[in-house]
Amino acid sequence: MSTARCAFYLRVSTDAQTVDVQRPDLDRLATARDFSVVATYEETASGAKARPRLDALIADARRGHFDVVCVWALDRIGRSMAGNIATVLELDRLGVRVVSVREDWLDTAGPVRSLLLAIFSWVAEQERARLVERTRAGIAAARRRGAQIGRRRRYVDVDRARALLDDGQSFRAVAKMLEVGVATLHRALERVPKTSPAADPSGPGNSTSGGAP
């Protein structure tokens, strides 16, 4: 019996994470199954976003480049039930098995496998939904405490901006001189009308802050 050709698919959600955590387990799995590793696809992307390396893996599967895909866990393929099932079943259709370090039941055959795939994908999806809920609850609690959420507004010297615009400078040129975005400059000028005290050089508060560029 010939050695099965294997591809690794490793994915992390953010640049702060690393696929190095997944690789040793995949190496041990390939060694234990006597797989020959012929390709590795590494991805840094949220499961909800486009995944070009997974797309490349499926394209290569269609070309018959390997017989098995090894993943660390089913949720590394995707984070929605429909997406996980569609990907695994598409690889099945192409004659490519999916083997997981954490879900050894993926290696089983017959109708039980399809049922288990649907169940465990649903569980992974529910875990992600709970994580999103906890994150939103934490942000809401932080806002109630008065914590700053997101980037702080950029400071914009509105008086100087108006003087430069009155002198004939373009919005783009003024934004560049003030080191802010054009949209930030527009928003800052809209928040402080020209007739307001803040726009009067002789009055207090002759500058304001604009939104993030």
List the helices and strands and how they pair.
Layout: E1 5-12, H1 23-33, E2 36-44, H2 52-62, E3 68-71, H3 81-93, E4 97-100, H4 111-144, E5 154-156, H5 158-166, H6 171-178, H7 182-191, E6 208-210
Parallel strand pairs: 1-2, 1-3, 3-4
Antiparallel strand pairs: 5-6
Helix pairs in contact: 3-4, 6-7
Structure report:
Helix 3 packs antiparallel against helix 4 (111-144) and helix 6 (171-178) packs across helix 7. The model is unreliable at 196-213 (pLDDT under 50). This protein has 213 residues and is of the alpha/beta class. The N and C termini lie far apart (61 Å). The protein has seven helices and six strands.
What's the shape? elongated
Unreliable segments (pLDDT under 50, ≥5 consecutive)? 196-213
Structural class: alpha/beta
- The CATH topology annotation of the largest domain reads as Rossmann fold
Overall tally of structural domains:
2
Name the CATH homologous superfamily of the largest domain. Resolvase, N-terminal catalytic domain
What is the correct CATH architecture of the largest domain? 3-Layer(aba) Sandwich
Helical content class: 40-55%
CATH class term of the largest domain = Alpha Beta
Q: What percent strand?
A: 5-15%
Quickly count the helices: 7
Question: How many DSSP-defined strands?
Answer: 6
Largest sheet: 4 strands, parallel
H/E series: EHEHEHEHEHHHE
Q: First CA to last CA: what distance?
A: 61 Å
Numbering strands along the chain, what is their spatial order in the largest sheet? Answer: 2-1-3-4
Mean pLDDT: 81
